[in-house]
Amino acid sequence: MSDTSSAASTAAATLKSLPTDMELVLKVIPMPADCNANGDIFGGWVMAQCDLAGSVIPARYAKGRQATVAVNEFIFKQPVRLGDILSFYSKLVRIGRTSVTVTVEVFAERFRAQGEYIKVTQATFTYVAIDDNGRPRPIEKPDA
Ligand SMILES: CC(C)(COP(=O)(O)OP(=O)(O)OC[C@H]1O[C@@H](n2cnc3c(N)ncnc32)[C@H](O)[C@@H]1OP(=O)(O)O)[C@@H](O)C(=O)NCCC(=O)NCCS
């Protein structure tokens, strides 16, 4: 981690609060093993955490085995730094016949500036309920 890196000089809008229209589904602090060669957090690590976070709401509807079928959008808006406290928020977008689509937004609190939040990542994922043979399985609609 270096304050002279180009990533460190990227301007980021600082927020004073976290979303109220999304659900907090995961909080995690990245460790040194999660860094890339620049000392920032490796994008693949962030993607894996987002996939886990995104699966929480769909699991409520799938009520069983499910698989990630698509990452419809993934934007790394700001770098994630070692020691950041990451909050993953998620919201339902669509319930299909066998699939559920959600958005995930990730907010970082820099370790020395807690209470100030920077949106670092946003993504959209689709999960499919699957049966024992790994084939798509109809999901129960909440109002059914
Ligand atoms: C998930 C899987 C079972 C779906 O099988 P499939 O034959 O493609 O299924 P279908 O074409 O019937 O699509 C199933 C649902 O996924 C949706 N879907 C498929 N491809 C999609 C895509 N690219 N983007 C968004 N949704 C998609 C379909 O719209 C459908 O949703 P609906 O029933 O709610 O309308 C199969 O693709 C699979 O096993 N993929 C690997 C999953 C995996 O291993 N994930 C982890 C990656 S390491």
Automatic annotation (TrEMBL):
GO biological process, one term: fatty acid catabolic process
Residue ranges of every copy of the HotDog ACOT-type domain listed in the record: 20-133
InterPro entries, per database record: Cytosol_ACT, HOTDOG_ACOT, HotDog_dom_sf, Thioestr_dom
Cited CDD domains: BFIT_BACH (cd03442)
Gene Ontology MF terms: long-chain fatty acyl-CoA hydrolase activity
UniProt key word Hydrolase: yes
Top-level class of the enzyme under EC nomenclature: hydrolase
The protein's Enzyme Commission number: 3.1.2.-
Keywords linked to the UniProt accession: Hydrolase
Domain of life: Bacteria
GO cellular-component term (any): cytosol
UniProt record similarity statement: Belongs to the acyl coenzyme A hydrolase family.
PANTHER family, sorted: ACYL COENZYME A THIOESTER HYDROLASE, ACYL-COA THIOESTER HYDROLASE YCIA
Name this protein carries in UniProt: Acyl-CoA thioesterase YciA
Species name: Variovorax guangxiensis
